[in-house]
Write a structure and sequence with these properties.
By secondary structure, the protein is an alpha+beta fold. The strands form two sheets. Strands 2, 4, 5, 6, 7, 8, 9, 10 and 11 form a nine-stranded antiparallel β-sheet that branches. A two-stranded antiparallel ribbon has the order 1-3. A hairpin with a 2-residue loop joins strand 9 and strand 10.
């Protein structure tokens, strides 16, 4: 399977959304000053390498691990596409951001420096601090015609309401979605990912959850269990 925007690069969203969690001036409910990484946005931080899969991995969803594995075992170069033409996710995103007091930034066009291999997209992100020193964030990508391509939600492990926030993200109402099944998958998967992360002490990614044209995975990363961050990403496939 081949899709228009790289999944490997999208893993950079995880670092970007949490990398500025301690920045002064990032007020609760504010639009995030960060952008998704290449394939979804523009900037790749120095810490991205720690969570980016091996560039030699096969770029196919069939090669995705069926059990939680360290991030270097995830296939690189997987591409994503719109969940469905005409589905923007606007109503869902409005409810989600309202519940968590998150203001998404104005949509910004990314044309990847006119790289024909990557069609231009719209991107937006935002974050809030449930308690001092903790953060939850959202990053969104749409095609130029407004169809939703991916939603990434990150949350510090110690953030108040973290499990509920990620559950609500997992229940994205894309065509073909089964929200209750997605929430149950996330609950089971979080425990499994926690166990592997505690043993490996390096970034870990879950197996994929598939529903309709959507694929979802959970990542956990950080310096240790007490300083860990979760990233849940849902993206469209062909």
């Amino acid at each position: 399977m081949k899709f228009p925007h790289t999944l490997a690069a999208a893993l950079a969203v995880c670092a970007l959304l949490t990398g500025c969690s301690s920045q002064a001036g990032s007020a609760p409910g504010s639009a995030s000053s960060t952008s998704p990484g290449p394939g979804e946005g523009e900037v790749t931080p120095s810490g991205t390498a720690a969570i980016t899969p091996s560039a030699t991995a096969t770029a196919d969803l069939d090669d995705w691990p069926t059990q939680p594995a360290t991030a270097d075992k995830l296939p690189a170069g997987i591409h994503s596409t719109a969940f469905a033409q005409g589905y923007s996710g606007a109503a869902f995103l409005a409810r989600l951001t309202n519940r968590w007091n998150i203001t998404l930034s104005a949509k910004k066009k990314n044309d990847f420096k006119a790289n024909d291999a990557w069609p231009a997209v719209w991107i937006s992100s935002g974050s809030t601090h449930p308690t001092p020193g903790t953060k939850v964030s959202i990053a969104v990508v749409w095609s130029l015609d407004g169809a939703l391509e991916s939603l990434t939600c990150t949350a510090d492990r110690k953030a108040t309401g973290r499990a509920e926030f990620l559950r609500q993200c997992a229940e994205l109402d894309h065509p073909g979605a089964h929200p209750q099944a997605a929430a149950s998958w996330l609950q089971r998967t979080t425990s499994a990912v926690d166990k592997v992360f505690a043993q490996a002490n390096k970034p870990v990614g879950s197996a994929l959850h598939r529903s309709g044209r959507a694929a979802t995975y959970l990542q956990e990363y950080g310096t240790n269990e007490n300083a860990a961050t979760y990233a849940l990403r849902i993206f469209g496939t062909a």
